[in-house]
């Protein structure tokens, strides 16, 4: 069994419009844009990162905004909901804020004894806020939301699958414990995780498969401390029969990827080196940063890429 996984590292999704996406996460949700760079494989497309002050692993939502991409079709084989943690007692504030900002699908509920507020992103993305107690993370408050209400980072992601069995077994191998099942949803937790340690699996045996597009999660990433731990995880997964990519340098972390039995793309990402490697903390997310292989494209990209601010 793998014991190097620390919980969630980041979640990466797709969007149809960079300016709308940027405004939603920085203005509506009050997160900090911590990096403005480009897709490694399609440098004419932004890769935008949002999170806390420094992009602490477990707080970072990232997006590929492909202009005019068709909207995704929700279904099985994907991350259905990305869930953020907020302080206890803050959901009434968020219900009022989201409604006034024109956000759709704002719906209160309770799951596993936790108060929850579901809502839609600009592309129909599935999001929720969950009230948590004693979250040790310091929120970003310069986005205009007070510490009493601000998002702390991820609480969980919910996988939507036709059959939970094989993926539950995989997550068990990755160090997750199964806590309980309620109403067709199985909850798993990394032991000892103070935050961003929960995975929910929703079983929908008769639902159609998903089709990726705007509003879809591209992949979910799990955190390990460093490259040595990542190599140990890679070997363990490959010894178990998974096809895992070589280690890829993503500038702000190193990454490996593999496809799960349920069809969801998993990544294992390092907590090093972080987002301050090429920008000072006070100016994170301000300048366009380019991977080494695309630096020669800067004059073209600065003309082509849509202005965000």
Can you say what the CATH homologous superfamily is? 2,3-Dihydroxybiphenyl 1,2-Dioxygenase, domain 1
From the coordinates shown, what is the CATH architecture?
Roll
What composes the largest sheet? 8 strands, mixed
Fraction in beta strands: 25-35%
- By DSSP, the count of extended strands is 16
- Tell the overall outline: globular
The CATH topology corresponds to: 2,3-Dihydroxybiphenyl 1,2-Dioxygenase, domain 1
Top CATH class? Alpha Beta
GO molecular function: dioxygenase activity
InterPro entries: Extradiol_RC_dioxygenase, Glyas_Bleomycin-R_OHBP_Dase, Glyas_Fos-R_dOase_dom, VOC_core
Pfam family, one: Glyoxalase
Domain VOC: 7-132, 153-271
Give a summary of the structure in a few sentences:
The protein is of the alpha+beta class and 309 residues long.
Describe how the helices and strands are arranged.
Blueprint: E1 8-15, H1 18-28, E2 32-38, E3 46-51, E4 60-65, E5 78-87, H2 91-100, E6 107-111, E7 114-120, E8 126-132, E9 153-161, H3 165-173, E10 177-182, E11 185-189, E12 198-203, E13 217-224, H4 227-239, E14 248-249, E15 253-259, E16 265-273, H5 298-304
Structural features, described:
There is one protein chain. By secondary structure, the chain is an alpha+beta fold. The chain has a single domain, classed as 2,3-Dihydroxybiphenyl 1,2-Dioxygenase, domain 1. The chain is built from five helices and 16 strands. The chain has helices at 18-28, 91-100, 165-173, 227-239, 298-304, and strands spanning 8-15, 32-38, 46-51, 60-65, 78-87, 107-111, 114-120, 126-132, 153-161, 177-182, 185-189, 198-203, 217-224, 248-249, 253-259, 265-273. The strands form two sheets. The protein has an eight-stranded mixed β-sheet. Strands 6-7-8-5-9-12-11-10 form an eight-stranded mixed β-sheet, with helices on one face. It is globular, with a radius of gyration of 18 Å. The mean pLDDT is 97. Keywords: Dioxygenase, Oxidoreductase.
């Amino acid at each position: 069994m793998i014991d190097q996984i620390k919980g969630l590292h980041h979640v990466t999704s797709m969007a149809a419009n960079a300016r709308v996406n940027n405004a939603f996460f920085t203005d509506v949700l009050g997160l900090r844009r911590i990096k403005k760079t480009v897709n490694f494989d399609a440098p004419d497309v932004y890769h935008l990162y949002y999170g806390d002050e420094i992009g602490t692993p477990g707080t970072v939502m990232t997006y590929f905004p492909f202009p005019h991409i068709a909207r995704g079709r929700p279904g099985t084989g994907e991350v259905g909901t990305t869930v953020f943690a907020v302080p206890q007692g803050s959901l009434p504030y968020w219900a009022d804020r989201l409604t006034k900002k024109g956000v759709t699908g704002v719906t209160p509920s309770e799951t596993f004894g936790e108060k929850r507020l579901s809502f839609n992103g600009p592309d129909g993305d599935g999001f929720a806020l969950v009230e948590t107690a004693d979250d040790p993370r310091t929120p970003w408050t310069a986005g205009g939301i007070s510490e009493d209400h601000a998002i702390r980072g991820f609480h969980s992601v919910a996988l939507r699958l036709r059959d939970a069995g094989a993926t539950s077994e995989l997550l068990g191998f990755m160090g997750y414990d199964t806590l309980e099942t309620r109403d067709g949803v199985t909850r798993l937790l990394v032991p000892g995780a103070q935050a961003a340690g929960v995975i929910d699996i929703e079983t929908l045996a008769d639902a159609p498969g998903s089709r990726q597009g705007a509003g879809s999660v591209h992949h979910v990433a799990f955190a390990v401390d460093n490259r040595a731990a990542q190599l140990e995880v890679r070997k363990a997964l490959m010894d178990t029969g998974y096809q895992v990519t070589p280690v890829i340098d993503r500038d702000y972390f190193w990454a490996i990827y593999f496809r799960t039995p349920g069809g969801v793309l998993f990544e294992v990402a390092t907590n090093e080196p972080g987002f301050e490697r090429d920008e000072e903390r006070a100016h994170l997310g301000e300048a366009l940063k380019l991977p080494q292989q695309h630096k020669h494209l800067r004059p073209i990209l600065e003309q082509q890429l849509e202005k965000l601010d």
